[in-house]
């Protein structure tokens, strides 16, 4: 880029002729210039770098800040950690999977996670040359096929190829260029590989390369040869097991997403060598009756709670709440084998039939599990609240504790509800009732804060002993759940506040507010129901709560909750704090689950180091790498969510595969130009009704009303409609269900018909000019 004041030349990587950006150095550039600069220089797309590049100072910097905020609210820019990007663009630093080579043999990668609604993930050409111009030397790691990497992203030099190039910062995981599928025997001892992904490709396996695979086995293969004609040929690398066996369904997601699920031997050895923590640098809190409250089937217990009235005369009616969290940082030290493996995983992954843990069982289920009656090291926060639920202060402590009891949500709730058992009876007055009183106190603060209160029931799949679906249930939402949740939230706030006060860098849990573009989509939809959403970028969580309250106990309740949820941004991890919109909190960091989330482990280390609490503090190397760590664990969180969701889809599709032709009660959960998504509440999954199967009418998609309606009849379907569908096809390996609509469409509201009349006039005029007729059945 040129250095002359007042002129910024085009990026040297851009081979196509592009007119230079002619600007006046020190003057605020136009919106168009800002957007173009960000597209061409993603590595300099922060507020500070933009001000520096254009020579802005004083009031011009303030004007730039307002312009960037407006562009973000209008959906022209998106904020990712410390940078701004164009919507649909890759952030300056991202996690990539190297998937193939181009015709010249150069490596091509794609983002490890990419939203489905943004189409095909962009290709990225990998630069393997180091800054010194020497292959494999200098600071650039050399990667290969199947590797997962953190990379710096640049605009592509050749506009005829991939949209981006990338320089590798770090190799996260070296993986073979493998894929999975179901092995089917073929004549002559050969085999065929049936894909497990919806867009997968069938492959041939020569007799010499079938290994020990048998018909119906789930296998991992590598591509042996790609020809110009015919199917690709593959070689069996390993046999996972029969596709009909227990746990095979979750193994598909584990392999498809590249989730590490086998601990390397050095990690196991390091975990086995760990010894119980000592009292060094610890306070003895073993007499404090902290208890754990978890799901009945929980195998590890990483948080414990205790509450008591505040004896201080200066805080009448106040309470003291103590939250103790397993001291994982004592056992998992920075850059150890355990630490490197935990970062590769990022978090534990929870499937209906198994858990893929972040840490080995010796750590997660033993040394760091707050077992009843056993000495265990912990980090504790002692929080003081006034009777109005306002926090008066807090302190952190590194302790040795001994859990007084292990309770489940249900038996703790039963005791409070007047049905104590032999275990909870003696605990009711001294422990449980003070906990519930403390929850009533901090709930007053929550009600005043008004976080986003979505009503989206969580369904849980219960399995039979053979690993197949037994039934889908909606567990009750108890006060015991809410008590633990709110106490953990308050502990997380304390962690962020303490580290900020100590000027200690950390990883926040941040949640940006909805963009102006998403707000407008929601506003148009709500208007069709007679519900208003104020315009402007200063929307808060309580604005959405008012909308949800208006829809409560109406036929539109579920639909409105879903649309409000879709309008929200995704929470991520970041070293830069922008607050948490959904919780309506300015400072928030994950502290309460270091057994299963790497972000919490970083926060623990930061607290240990900044407060001088002994060994296991954060290192300078970690502090310098927080940007990359935050990007990685955010990606791994999305990876886990996708794997968990796909596993549920596959389990339900497998469960329903014997019921093709049957009718089911469902609800329209999504409306697109291509058709309708219909959820089956009794099964926790959904399927698709192609628009071409809805009938002979010409159906028009109305985004504002979230509807498909017939041009001729005016009958159609809206988001949230209760419908009856017939199962036409179930593809278990892909987790796909296809339905046929049985229910007749209903009369669309007047506003929808008016929209269609205008649309028909435009369509007739366009067809008259083009000399065409509309296709039957779909648009």
Automatic annotation (TrEMBL):
Its main location: cytoplasm. GO terms for biological process: mRNA catabolic process. 3'-5' exoribonuclease that releases 5'-nucleoside monophosphates and is involved in maturation of structured RNAs. The keyword Cytoplasm applies. It catalyses: Exonucleolytic cleavage in the 3'- to 5'-direction to yield nucleoside 5'-phosphates. NCBIfam families: 3_prime_RNase (TIGR00358), RNase_R (TIGR02063). Residues 750-779 are annotated as: Disordered. It is an enzyme of class 3 (hydrolase). The keyword Cell wall biogenesis/degradation does not apply. Its EC number is 3.1.13.1. SMART domains: RNB, S1. The gene is rnr. Belongs to the RNR ribonuclease family. RNase R subfamily. Residues 661-729 form the S1 motif domain. This is Ribonuclease R. HAMAP family: RNase_R. Keywords: Cytoplasm, Exonuclease, Hydrolase, Nuclease, RNA-binding. Pfam families: CSD2 (PF17876), RNB (PF00773), S1 (PF00575). It comes from Rhizobium gallicum bv. gallicum R602sp. PANTHER family: DIS3-LIKE EXONUCLEASE 2, RIBONUCLEASE. It is found in: Cytoplasm. One of its GO terms (molecular function) is RNA binding. InterPro entries: CSD2, NA-bd_OB-fold, RNase_II/R, RNase_II/R_CS, RNase_II/RNase_R, RNase_R, RNR_Ribonuclease, S1_domain. GO terms for cellular component: cytosol.
